[in-house]
Each structure stands twice: as C-alpha cells, then as structure tokens.
Amino acid sequence: MANVVVRHLRTTLVAETSAGRLLVLTSLLGSIGLGLYQAGSAVYFVHVIGFSGVQVGSGLSAAGLAGLALGIPIGRLADRLGPREVTVAVCVLKAIPLAVFPLAGHYWVFLLTAVVFGVADAGWNVANEAVIAGTMSGSHRVRLSAQLRSIYNIGMTAGALLAGLAVAANVPAAYFGLFWGYAVTTLITAALYLRLPHVPGTGAVHASVHRLAALSDLPYLAVAQVSGLALLSETVLEIGLPLWVVTQTTAPRWLVPGLLAVNTVLVVIFQARAARGAETIPGAVRTLQISFVALIAMCVLAAVSAAVPVWAAVLVLVASVVALTGGEMGSSAARWCMRFSFAPEGGQGQYGAVFRLGQIGPRVIGPVVVTALLGQCHAMGWLALAVVFGLGLVAGPAAARWAQRTRIEKAAIS
C-alpha cells in the first residue's frame, strides 16, 4: 500500500522534463515564501505597525487592481523580450517591496510598497505562465500546471505553519523574518529561472501579435469571464464556509480548519489526476461542465447542513468540501487548457494577462457577494450561488465553441 502511495505521489509531483522539474522547484520555494507572507503580514501591519484593518484591506485591494491593470503590458513585454528574462526581472522587483514592508511605518509608504508588490507579483504570474507555454507544448502544459498547483499547496501549508511560529512569538524580529524570508526565496527563484532554456521573444519590430489583440479578442475574454466564475469556490472555501459553519450550523468550530485541510490534501493528491482528460478543448469543456455540476452540488449540501443535527452536519459539510474541491480542481485544469490553447504562440504573455481579468469578479467582488448572500439570505444564499454556477454550466461550452470557431476562421483566412 505504501509503495502505491509513493508511486502515485511521484507521478503527481515529479515533472517529466528537467525544465518542468526546475519549475516545480521554483513553485515550491515561491509558495513557501508566500505562505510565510500571507499567514503573518496582516497581523504584523495591524497589531505591530498599528494600521487599521480597513487601511490594510484597501492597500491590498489597490495592489491587486494595479497588478491586474499592469499585467497586460508586462505580458506584452514577456512576449517581446522573452518570458524567462522578464520573469527574472519581476522576481527581483518583487523582493524590493518585501524588504521594505517591515519598515513601512506610515500608511502612504505601505500603500506605495503594496502597489509595487502587487504589480511585481501579478507580473510574475503572467510571465511564469508564458515560460510554461514556451518550455512545454500541448498537453504537457496542463499536466505541468496541475503539478505546480499540487506543489503550491504543499509549500503554502509549510509556509503558513512556519509563520505560525512567528505570530506566536509576537516580536518584531520574528515578523521581519516572514517578509525577508519571502524576499530570499524570491531571489533564489530568480536565480533558478536563469537555468531554464531561453525562450526567444518576438522582438519589438517583428511582434507577431498586435499589442491590443487580446483585449479585442471578445471570444477569449468571454471564455476567461465564464470559466472564471468557478473561482468563486475559493472565496466560498476561505470565507463563506467558515462563517456558515460558525453562525448557521450546529457543527463544532474546530471543523473549520479541518475542512481547509481536507481541501489542501485532496488538491495535493488528486490535482494531477483531475487534469487528465482536460488536455484538449473538447475535454476541457467536459471537465468544466462537470466542475460546475460539482459546485452546484456543493451549494445544495452546504444549505442542507444548517437543518441537520451535529453528526450529520459534520458529514454533510465534509461532503460539500469534497464536491467543492472536485469542482475547483476540474475547473482549474479546464482553464489552463483554454488559456494556453486559445492564445497565439507569439502572444502567450499578453493573452495570459488578459485571461487573468476573469478573476476580477470572483476575487474582487466575490467576497462581498458571498458574505452578503450567506449572511442575509442564509440557505437561499447558497441557492443563489448555485444559480451563478449554473450560468457557468450553460455559458461555458458556448463561449468555448465561439473561441474555437473564430480560431478556425482566422486560420482559414491566413
């Protein structure tokens, strides 16, 4: 049995090529650093520096929006100059605000530092995906993306556990270690990227894709927005379910971290397997549909959990997280396939940045919508979320067919 588990984990976590293995290593290092930062930074800013929760939240929101806005020119730069070089540059850029954060005693310094960090972090995500597209081909891109996500969950968990030690110590030096530790892992990651194969850029003069091509590609934007609806599952897991468990069910409070642990373990073990069959557009569409069905089932189960006794509530909530995780893993694989497949090879950076615009609704508006629906409408709020996922179930295949048809037409014309 142990040998079977080891073989499965090796297949799940070990990439097939040397470039893939190097990218897995960079993902592990980066996610450990991110886990350090995310688990302790807000506590430091509020309880040590003295900022209000609103100030910290507004600064991080500004950083996220700046990253989305400037991700497109950074993606375009990756297409022109080569994604490896741009990824290294944004890694170095990201280390600078991480070094400055502990010293940001004034709000405006914090805000400016957060915006620089947000832009660099978004730029890294965009350029890194272009690196994957340039070093991998076809189904290998989806397979590697799945492995990277599994590794990401391992690293985030390890980083969060280490951050817990700093929070428990509750002294400035320990908090400094969180930021500077992330800065160090980021710089090591930059050095590792230099060992990847060079992916030639298109050059400023001979660029094969117009600088506004992705923004004017309505079918691609539609695919990004519709498939992005599944990202609401992350907000539900991190905010919606914890609040629901505590305020609306008889389940014990200790179940909240348990549900998060179930999600993390399932993603680590099964994300690569969930990506099988989603390497082609037809397969990705089927996987996306199944994922939305799973998310609808999650909403129904979560709603039922408020009307049953303690033991049943625990079982139903665990089942709802299993369904949520299945939908999360499947939709991720489907999005990876469509993000890479519908983008022209000379514009993977620019198109990848535009595809990330599909995250605006779920990640910027999603927390407000989820908390309002579940807090004010209770069980009916879950049914409203099920309707949102139902829209994705219906509109997802239509958007994918539209995008595929326009690619075929363009190929025929050229």
From TrEMBL:
InterPro entries: MFS (IPR011701), MFS_trans_sf (IPR036259), MFS_Transporters (IPR050171). It is a multi-pass membrane protein. Coiled coil: none annotated. Its main location: membrane. Gene3D superfamilies: MFS general substrate transporter like domains (1.20.1250.20). It comes from the Bacteria. Pfam families: MFS_1. The chain crosses the membrane at residues 21-39, 45-74, 86-104, 151-169, 175-194, 251-270, 290-323, 379-400. Keywords: Cell membrane, Membrane, Transmembrane, Transmembrane helix, Transport. It is found in: Cell membrane. This is MFS transporter. It comes from Fodinicola feengrottensis.
